[in-house]
Amino acid sequence: MSTLNQLRASAYRIRRHAVRMGAVQGQGYIGQALGYADVLAVAYCHALNLRPSDPEWDGRDRFLLSHGHYAIAFYAALIEAGFIDEEELFTYGGDDSRLPMSGMATYTPGMEISGGSLGLGLPIAIGIALGLRHQHNPAIVYNSMSDGELNEGSTWEAAMIASHYQLSNLICLVDINNMQADGPSSKVMAFEPLADKWAAFGWHVQRVDGNDLAAVLNAFDTARQLLDPKPRVILFDTLMGKGVPFLEARDKNHFIRVEPQEWAQAISALDQAKPEGA
Amino acid sequence: MTQPKPRLTTSAMIASIASEGQRTQAAPFGKALVAYAADHPEIVGLTADLAKYTDLHLFAQAYPNRFYQMGIAEQVLMASAGGMAKVGLTPFATTYAVFGTRRAYDFVHQVIAEEHLNVKICCALPGLTTGYGPSHQATDDLAMMRAIPGMTIVDPCDALEISQAVPQIAAHNGPVYMRLLRGNVPLLLDEYDYQFELGKAKLLCDGNEVLVISSGLMTMRALEVAQKLRSDRISVAVLHVPTLKPLDEAAILREAGKGGRLVVVSENHSVIGGLGEAVASLLLQQGVVPTRFKLLALPDAFLDAGALPTLHDRYGISTEKFAQSVKLWLKQ
Ligand SMILES: Cc1ncc(C[n+]2csc(CCOP(=O)(O)OP(=O)(O)O)c2C)c(N)n1
Ligand SMILES: [Mg+2]
């Protein structure tokens, strides 16, 4: 099977795991998970250098989940990548689970940081990237963040520092789903022209359709193989609810409303479009 | 494949702390602010992408031209509220308690408090009122705010108290930090003929074996405990202290000085730096030393994630565990 077809199957399974976790709690940031699944599939099943049996291996690429509320999406990717057993998704958000609703480093193997308080990821990534370089460790640091985090000053402070130190071992992934708590991100705090902003801060910038797997794959490969001594950012425009037509069509909200009986319907919608070989 | 066991779900940010069947009132903060602002044009509202989650959206709907969305930028939220106060406005700035305190501390301290500016900081999810883990559990907000000179601090118990507090903190000259309960907020103090007065503690019920001194959510719990223990013929007094700073020292000294009672200070906050330590310090310095004095508060720890009822049990602030602790202490 080609890489692209394998990734398509992975993205399908990531979406499926996430919806099953949502069903366990009857709630969750499922719109975000569906929208970001393609990016996570490429990250966890293609780009990152990892050892699932040894999550703390020194040479691993670091993936920082700054937007901790995306944990449901991230756990789904960890299951797909073999860090966590699929069975464990039944504990999602429950008491004493390793999979709390907001991602925390102390709970989950493969979770590098405790995000959730937005705007922490990129500053931490600066330190890890500087530290790895200092130790001649060739691992790459990925900071994954949401468009809401573009509001935080700490993001731009870190952006300036990253180019100052020419952190070419740093790749920042931004999910532009145009949504945050009080409404569309562009209305809460206008952020365009976003590519120009990052470029002005000294970053190598790509902006792609985050639900076009081939484009996502290409963007990751470009960022990894680039020789330019700059930090790299990939801006992914994504669609909340992607892959489940009735959720794609629903009024968009930070919390997408899902009725109890709709979790099973979401699973069947995914299964109907199940890619070959999945 | 194993079937999922029925389990308590983690309380979302939007969840209410009201227990099932409890009387509630929707969005008391938002409604009270809209009413007060009608003839106070100096009132403006600011938030950091949490209008919907602090009930400030009601103000935004009523007065779109007096509402400022600052995005998820809590430091700028606080400093710009300070700037607005410097030109004569009275800003109400809302976010979650963890972000209004931890993230924005220097901006509150240096911009707002140091010049004693007229900013009203109103923050949701106080103490342990979400199961999302330490990133959202404001177990140290009172300690941080108490350490700021000139900061007035209010920890209201229910919807009635929030409605009554809004006009008073708005009229007060200087910075205020108020803990906010949002959404469907429990309503109970109307049964106690209650009237909030900024800076005043109120004895809600009297009793001769136990004196509970409490604020916020824990006053609700204390009243439930008092009722519960009545059937065990244990009589509990509850002194509600909604204003933590300045503290109503006279009322606390009067009640704690009555003697013979187990004194319990109960708060939805870490044992470090909240009401408990404030009361202990006051009593010791004034030479009013109860024979038995206990703190019922959250531990000095990063708390777990999970379902809120589980966590309230685990950390001893549920009505059940509170009552058990009181009984145990009475036997000691
Ligand atoms: C520092 C900080 N401020 C506020 C919040 C509360 N909050 C949680 S999610 C959220 C919206 C964030 O935007 P984004 O991640 O783009 O939202 P989504 O795409 O998931 O709707 C906010 C304001 C937070 N978690 N951290
Ligand atoms: Mg977003």
Descriptive account of the structure:
With 278 residues, chain A is of the alpha/beta class. Chain A has a five-stranded parallel sheet, with helices on both faces. In chain A, strand 2, helix 5 and strand 3 form a beta-alpha-beta unit. In chain A, 55% of the residues are buried. With 332 residues, chain B is α/β, with parallel strands linked by helices. Chain B folds into two domains: 167 residues, 3-Layer(aba) Sandwich (Rossmann fold), CATH 3.40.50.970; 133 residues, Rossmann fold. Chain B has twelve helices and 14 strands. In chain B, the strands form three sheets. Chain B has a seven-stranded mixed sheet with strand order 3-2-4-5-7-6-12, with helices on both faces. In chain B, strand 10, helix 8 and strand 11 form a beta-alpha-beta unit. In chain B, helix 1 runs parallel beside helix 7 and helix 8 crosses helix 12. The interface between A and B is large, with 34 and 39 residues. Bound molecules: thiamine diphosphate (TPP) and magnesium ion. Thiamine diphosphate sits at the interface of chains A and B.
Helix/strand order of chain B = EHEHEHEHHEHEHEEEEHEEHEHEHH
Number of helices of chain B: 12
Spatial ordering of strands, largest sheet of chain B: 3-2-4-5-7-6-12
Rounded Rg of chain A: 18 Å
Q: How many beta-strand runs of chain A?
A: 5
List the helices and strands and how they pair.
The complex is a heterodimer of chains A (278) and B (332).
Chain A: H1 3-25, H2 30-47, E1 62-65, H3 71-81, H4 121-134, E2 141-146, H5 153-164, E3 170-176, H6 185-188, H7 194-200, E4 204-209, H8 213-225, E5 232-237, H9 245-249, H10 262-272
Parallel strand pairs in A: 1-2, 2-3, 3-5, 4-5
Chain B: E1 24-26, H1 28-37, E2 43-47, H2 57-62, E3 67-69, H3 74-86, E4 90-96, H4 97-103, H5 105-113, E5 120-124, H6 141-146, E6 152-154, H7 159-171, E7 176-180, E8 184-186, E9 202-205, E10 210-214, H8 216-230, E11 236-240, E12 243-245, H9 249-256, E13 262-270, H10 275-285, E14 292-298, H11 308-314, H12 319-331
Parallel strand pairs in B: 2-3, 2-4, 4-5, 5-7, 6-7, 10-11, 10-13, 13-14
Antiparallel strand pairs in B: 1-8, 6-12, 9-11
Helix pairs in contact in B: 1-7, 3-5, 8-12
Bound molecules: thiamine diphosphate (TPP) and magnesium ion (MG).
Thiamine diphosphate sits between chains A (29, 32, 67, 69, 116-119, 146-148, 177, 179-181, 185, 254) and B (49-50, 72, 99, 103).
